[in-house]
Amino acid sequence: PPLGPHLAALAADIGPPGGYATDAVLPDLAALATDRLAADGVPAGELTVTGGALDGIERLLAAHLRPGDAVAVEDPGWANLLDLIAALGLRTVGVPVDDDGPTVGGVRAALAAGVRALVVTSRAQNPTGAAVSADRADALRTLLDGRADLLLIEDDHAAELARVPLHPLAGATPAWAFVRSVSKPYGPDLRLAVLAGDEATVARVAGRARVGAGWVSTVLQRLVVSLWRDPATAELVRRAADSYDRRRDGLVAALAARGVAAHGRTGINVWVPVPDETVTVTTLRDAGWAVAPGRLYRIAADPAVRVSVSALDEADIPALADALTAGRKGPFLTHSV
Fold first, then answer.
1. C-alpha neighbours within 13 Å on the C-beta side of residue 311
2. Pairing mode, strands 175-181 and 101-102
3. Which top-level group of life is the source organism from (predicted)?
């Protein structure tokens, strides 16, 4: 959404600049965030803000874990998260993921391997589009119930752009956090995420922030409040979500009609299994299409490519589906010999 009108209104009534004694979380933002999370079944009695989802996850891992500890992550999963875990000196344990989220067997195996944290993407999982279903959430909550040795982190980065119900795991373990970013629905330059969790976990994150960055700019917080309160912005985000759904679902359906089983239940990405990532990426590049090799996102999962629909026109879906189908075979296998 355009930020200009909201920034202009903010400039007119922002009042005197805040100082070092200013609260880290503005009361208006805290109240709105609490209501929005509660509507999705997330308890938000304790809440803070961070500089985006990945910043929140980094602070959580740094506050609870030590170098060498193991973290369970989805496989395939978010490439930036895999890089972050490595940069913190932590170890990754891959958990297979299907359209309904991390598999119960995979999480059980990770727990048996001694992981100290589990990161779950609630919806619009990157890169597969998985979303935790009601049945999967129930099974995982039962499995995780009372695990005092585990930090549970949920990442709801897509927020309003994910057009499926949220089925949170929040509270299944004594130490937990739910992170919701505003960057996907409202723009990547809005480096703000709301972080709810148990009292000790939220206090650790907020305390660590005070001796580092200090706080997330209250100017930015006021801007987010303005966007949240604006019906026109909400309608624009709804239309954007509908557009992403049409293009993602259209590509998945077009590939299915060509005999290719791709994944993309929610979000802006489609995960397409391929025999050889390099061949597929190269063939598509030569045909004028850019996709991401799956090796950036996977640990032990099978080869695939990630296709983002964010810049895809609906009229181009058939041509892209044809190119992907041919690209899976490779440049030298598309004709009979």
1. 4
2. unpaired
3. Bacteria
